Amino acid sequence: MKKSHIIALGVIAIAIGIIISTVGDASTYVGFTEAESLAKEGSNKSVHVVGSLKKDAQGNIVGMIYDPVTDPNSFQFKMVDSLHNEKTVIYSQPKPQDLDKSEKVVVVGSMDLQNNVFRADQILLKCPSKYNNGELKEEDMKPAVSMQNQ
Hints:
The structure is a single chain. By secondary structure, the chain is an alpha+beta fold. The chain has a domain at 28-130: CATH 2.40.50.140. Helices cover 24% and strands 32% of the residues. The strands form two sheets. Strands 2-4-5-7-6 form a five-stranded mixed beta barrel. A hairpin with a 2-residue loop joins strand 8 and strand 9. The longest helix is centred in the first third of the chain and has 23 residues, at 3-25.
């Protein structure tokens, strides 16, 4: 065999190894009920749960606990998944900045059966678009003010 053939086979083998390792680490999208079932089966695999923050009748967020003075790396909130199941989510990091404004929330982690909560390793936010139905808001159309050195 030529050297170029051996090198090409080596590159292909490395590419296949990378693809297989990333597929094995991929997590799936589930609801809280399925995440709980997976945890009961002994799976410690990370899952994605899509939902929204729990709100009262007036649209205020309920169940959010975050005190950065006491413990900045402890954040807790109630989330309702896409199947309308409610669960408390605990995130051991600071509260994401625009969580209150987000339309949808994706939490990545696993169920903690002992405490009946979802332990999130990561929070992904889907923030509302500044363009609603193709219309611009008045404040979005204002030109940016630039300061020049005088």
